[in-house]
């Protein structure tokens, strides 16, 4: 999967990252992310939204879209974001 990253400055020193991917968000992608340790919030999935999280990130996006919003739970996340990006590239 190809990933294009954009950063949006937020308050309190946190950044929001947008990953534009070359495939739409699908149930298959969601299941793949759950398999690598993300927790799916099914009340969102039932209405066509992806909302998953783990100890480092909250990832949201609309099913069928090619954009995922990544919110890091820590102030300094560059290394974690790079690892996530590499993980998505391998899917």
What percent of residues adopt helix (DSSP H or I)?
25-40%
Q: Evaluate the radius of gyration.
A: 12 Å
Helix and strand composition category: alpha+beta
Unreliable stretches, pLDDT < 50, 5 or more residues?
Answer: none
Q: In percent terms, what proportion of residues is strand?
A: 35-45%
Number of strands: 6
The profile of the biggest β sheet is:
6 strands, antiparallel
Strand-and-helix sequence, N→C?
EEHEHEEEH
| Intertermini distance | 6 Å
Could you characterize the architecture of this molecule?
The chain has one domain. 29% of the residues lie in helices and 36% in strands. It is α+β, with helices and mostly antiparallel strands and 91 residues long. It has a six-stranded antiparallel sheet. The chain is built from three helices and six strands; from the N terminus they run ββαβαβββα. The mean pLDDT is 92. A hairpin with a 3-residue loop joins strand 4 and strand 5.
